[in-house]
Amino acid sequence: MLRKLESALGWPAGWLDEPAAWARTPEGVRRQVERSSEAARRLRAILAEAASGSGSDRVRAGSVRGTLDGLYASGELRRLVDAVDPLGSALRGPGLDSVFPASLPHEVPLINRVVAGYPTEFTDLGYPARVADEYVRVPDLADPDAFAARVVGDSMSPDYREGDVVVFSPAKAVRDGCDCFARLEPDQTTTFKRVFFETDGDGAERIRLQPLNASYPPTVLPRSEVAGLYRAVSVVRTLPDG
Known about the structure:
The protein has helices at 2-9, 17-24, 27-51, 57-74, 76-84, 86-91, and strands at 106-115, 120-121, 135-138, 147-152, 165-169, 178-184, 189-199, 205-210, 219-222, 226-236. By secondary structure, it is of the alpha+beta class.
């Protein structure tokens, strides 16, 4: 019917789709959208009026800032923002964050691999930081420098299996017993191990890289030979078919 109406009136095909969808929208939703649109127009008009009050960019910026300060102090800014985004306002209410998480899952780059066995040459395929061909979606992680790596080998079994994707966060503190992506000097090899901090008889700091699989021996290195430790924060595992 819409196509016939558009053809009879000489309008482009699809021109009536949006009005028709709007007509089918429940009344309560339409009222809320109209309130949000009106609040957005009101806020835009206030800011446009403040910005047009002078010919100087600096003064215009000051006028906008002053207007926002006044709106904030009066509570009008919060009212307008809540009207524009009523769902976001509700999710920010006390006690609701755990029920309705408002943040989207963070995507972290999946780098080449990390060997859960003996240290081996590592490559990030030459990509710049935070860039990769593939990404992993991780909820409840806000570290922009987090990365993920696919496990190769079985030295961290049974907790981690070959093929698991482990997410590491440089922002997380590393303590005794943490499972870490370890970057080693001087040749930039890497491995995935449980980390323990120790001192020798002379008081020199050492780091023990401990496999979870008893078939593999631990590696003990001077602290200076460990270029970086990045704590594991989550693991993504594909379940077998069937």
